Input
Amino acid sequence: MKSVAENEDMATIAVGKKEVTRDLDHCDIPYYVSEFVEREVGNDYDSLRKLDNLIDKLSENKQQLEEQVLTVSSEVPKRIQNALKNAEDSKKSLNRLLEEETLLSESINSHLEKAQPWMEELHVLISQVEEIERHLAYLKWISRIEELSDSIQQYLMTNSVPEAASTLAFMAELDIKLQESSCSHLLAFMRSTVKFWHKILKDKLSSGFEEVLAQLSWPFVGPPQSQAFGLPAPASAPDVYNNLEMLFCQLLKLQTSDELLTKPKQLPEKYSLPPSPPIILPIQIMLNPLQKRFKYHFTGNKQTNVLNKPEWYLTQVLMWIGNHAKFLDDKIQPILDKAGSSVNAGLEFSRGLVMLILEKLAADIPCLLYDDALFCHLVDEVLLFERELYSVHGYLSSLPSCMHILSEESCFQRWLTVEKKFALQKMDSMLSSEAAWVSQYKDITDVDEMKVPDCAETFMTLLLVITDRYKNLPTASRKLQFLGLQKELVDDFRIRLTQVMKEETRASLGFRYCAILNAVNYIATVLADWADNVFFLQLQQAELEVHVESSAVSKLQLGQLASMESSVFDEMINLLERLKHDMLTRQVDHVFREVKDAAKLYKKERWLSLPSQAEQAVMSLSSTACPMLLTLRDRLLQLEEQLCHSLFKIFWQMLAEKVDLYIYQEIIMANHFNEGGAAQLQFDMSRNLFPLFSHYCKRPENYFKHIKEACIILNLNVGSALLLKDVLQSAADNETFKPNQPSAIAALNELGVYKLAQQDVEILLNLRASWPNTGK
Output
């Protein structure tokens, strides 16, 4: 009954809730009252006792709200009145400001109309003033130039040359600052003034400097032993060196003006010489007599100017650099350091003389470009000159050098062509030589470890020489072209070796065939070593950059190049390794055929009827095994003598693998063995075959695992053999072993059998001839 009543009450409330709906557009009092009653009373009728307190609380809230409403209703009109009043005041202020703005605007416009004529007149005046100021600035510059010019004149009249030089240096700096000006006449006046005084000062200082140099016996053109080496009489030495320092410093001050007025002689752009500053003025003066001597002897119709003797002028320049090096370091460099200059006297002097060489080469090369002998001789001499210039005299690679002339397109392509031509001729001669396949170190055991034939060593020396010739080229692109030539030569030499090898195929164990194999191995080894050289790693990086720009190779190859997984010689090395493997395989096959022929009698041995070990006083080698073992011994000794150590190691390991499988498959698995036969087989193998290879490794039996493990199975005592047979049989019958039963693999491992499969072991057990009668 109670539950029915509760359901009726709930329905009533639900109905009531449905009847009270909320009006969202207005303040819905019935809805809020319903919500309030539901919240405070709900379905708990016991809470109706709280109604008195609830009514009191609501009455109190109502009273408070009424008081607030009364307060607000009394305050709101006052606020509204104040707001309206403020708005009226603001409006009046705004109107007043608008009127004032109108009056002010009219006044300004009127003033502007009246002032317009004054503005126009004032603008004209301002323009005139600006023009006068420009004229004044122009006159000030002229006055400043004239003042500086007068100062230089006064200094020269009083013989104050250092002050005159300093003033001229300041004037030259002003000239540089004026270059941004559009006043062409002022610029021309400044430049002509600088030029005027520069010539006077340069002539005056140069003549004095040349006199001092003459007192020092400059230049030192004789042999070093006969040189006075710039040493004047002891009494006058301090004065001479003081004058040298004073005049050198004064000439150094003229450097700025000299660079403004003198354009250095430049070679054509096709030579791509690196930018370099002009040679400092005092060094130029010191170089003048040597330049005159050079041009006298090595230009025109002089007997010393011949195309086939480039070493004359190259050697002469090296002698001049060497003869003057000590004087420049001891006497001139301290002056430069004291003056705060960063110039190296020796390098500056060398640079001036090298420029003579570059001009000479640029003039001579077109005349001998198509004469192979002359051109090749020139290149050889230039490379020798460069080597001494860099190694002995400390010349810098960042400065212009002869390699820039040789890198010019037509000259460089000719150089590549000639280099390839002479390299191919050298390869022809080295391969046709009588000693081509003989090692020149054959009688020196320690040196002849690689057993390298003379032709291979000569060829790698040729490649090394080519590397030395081009490694100082100024650009990576030129070096990469030479690297391409080297790769071509390696491939050509490989093809020639392959051709000679094919002629020797019938005698694959012969001396020449082995020499070819040693040559292939040596070339591949050296190329692999070169791949880790810094020079070739740099070329690899340059090649990578070229490939990235041209997208000529796959992303995989780019990745390998970038990660250094491959090298610039990888393609060549892979081809050589393939050739080496083919040749070794042919040798192994040849020896293996001989071993098989020699093993025919041993294969037919009566293993089933041999006497047991107990019946023999001493075990001895089977007579039928002797031909096979002798063949093996002779060929191993022969090839150990003819092949290098690394190749012979590969050879005997490959041969051992083949012999192991052959004896196992063709002899052991093809016969049945009694106790004596098994013991004889083990004796032949462990005491005779394995020791043949003991010279080459500590445990030769590890290379004959099939034979070794087969001998273990065949020579097990009967009890162990029966037990093993049961284990293998159980393993075959049950895929899942019993918990306490050992697995077949564990049993085999315990006996020392790891290589043979379970099925092979079962076959070997069945090859045993004598089994006890177990009643099965």
